[in-house]
Amino acid sequence: MGRAFVYVILGGGVAAGYAALEFTRKGINPGDLCIISEETVAPYERPALSKGFLLPKDPARLPSFHTCVGSNDERLTPKWYKDHGIELVLGTRVKSADLRRQTLLTAAGETISYMTLIIATGARALKLEEFGVMGSDAQNVCYLRDLEDATRMVDVMQSSTGGSAVVIGGGYIGMECAAALVTNNIAVTMVFPEEHCMARLFTPEIAAFYEEYYKSKGVKFIKGTVLSSFERDPDQKVTSVMLKDGTKLKADMVVVGIGIRANTSLFEDQLVMDKGGIKVNGQMQTSNSSVYAVGDVASFPLKLFGEIRRLEHVDSARQSAKHAVNAILRPDETSDFDYLPFFYSRVFTLSWQFYGDNRGEVVHFGNFKTGHFGAYWVNKGRLVGAFLEGGTKEEYQAIARATRMQPLIKDTGELAKQGLNFATLHGQQPPASTATTGGGLVLEKPLYAFHATAGVLVAVSIAVVAYWYGRHRKRW
After folding, report:
1. Nearest residue to 409 via CA among 433, 380, 431, 438
2. How many angstroms separate the CA atoms of 456 and 340, rounded?
3. Angstrom distance (rounded) from CA 317 to CA 101
4. Global pTM?
5. Among 288, 293, 283, which Cα is nearest to 269's?
6. Which residues share a beta bridge with 26?
7. Which pLDDT value is given to residue 425?
8. According to the model, what pLDDT value does residue 123 have?
9. Within 10 A of 139 (CB to CB), how many other CB atoms are there?
10. Across the chain, which distance is largest between two alpha carbons, in Å?
């Protein structure tokens, strides 16, 4: 037996929800679209899992954070999909794909055919076993990637209140989960091999600020070493964590956040791969013309920097999904995806946003003591990235605009003196011609004409959405 659809989205994460909304707004017919997901619930805003969902008081719960509330848009409940004639095939694993025949085979043996496929399979959390450490099956060892993980983590946290937790990993998940654990009255020790937290993005100076803030909340840091093994009780519950440097840490629970890997296994022998993901063109189209890929699984041309990138963040998933739908339905009207990389986080009372690329010379600015500071990255004489902690909506908009414009910077010392003022003064609008600011900073036309119009609007809208999300984070 089997079913046939015009469009099939494989994967039920953030990208699937945003693609579904875009499909309906472009006017597809009821019955045309199917979403296949291993999860048992309709697509939801995944960032809520490491924020509002873990709060001890008034935690976020579905249906409050179904997509697309993360962009201050419609909330797509199961009823919404039914009302729009979209088939949700939940709790279903696809075990094989035949892209030549345009069919998917589920674990239950059903064949689902399509005319156009959007791969939105996302990524999976890396497990300790992949690094030679056994123990992921222990009842108090937690990962965080989906709703099931988050629900389990809440249960473990509630049984560990007043106790201690070891967080393995100093990246996004590690930092956000550590904050949640502290909020739940659990003493936290973070362990990671790098010299400082968020090593892929933060400079040592920026990292020092956050580490000191976390320390003020009681968090301890052990750096430059990794997990070696666990000690367990007769019930196979972890009681202690053993580190490679010989340190032994008591633990009532363990949270593991050591990275993710794109879910590409169904397609690795059928599609071109690059940068750990499925390679697509500027229309999010793969090497098979009837197949598109979006979100964490897609390696796409980053027009702003002239190279292929695979990005692991919710905004990229949202924007690439919408772009793919437009490319599918209105190919003649859809230009190549022109994305400004964007990352953000909110922990405790802190809030930061980053745009662009963190390559080149770093220019810090602002006041680290007051918590209103930032950094620019200057590569090959141009401003290519910007970070800001504690900004206002307008300030985040300004750094997004300035980064998108990629102005020429001749004097980084002067850039440091101007600091945030550089973005707020010169990120107002694209310059009409080359002009000198008077302090050795030179602004030129953006590298791409399109960046000066639609690109700036996209950057501003992203900043507004992130600011709104942060203001409403306690709700979901």
Report:
1. 380
2. 9
3. 27
4. 0.90
5. 288
6. none
7. 85
8. 97
9. 15
10. 73
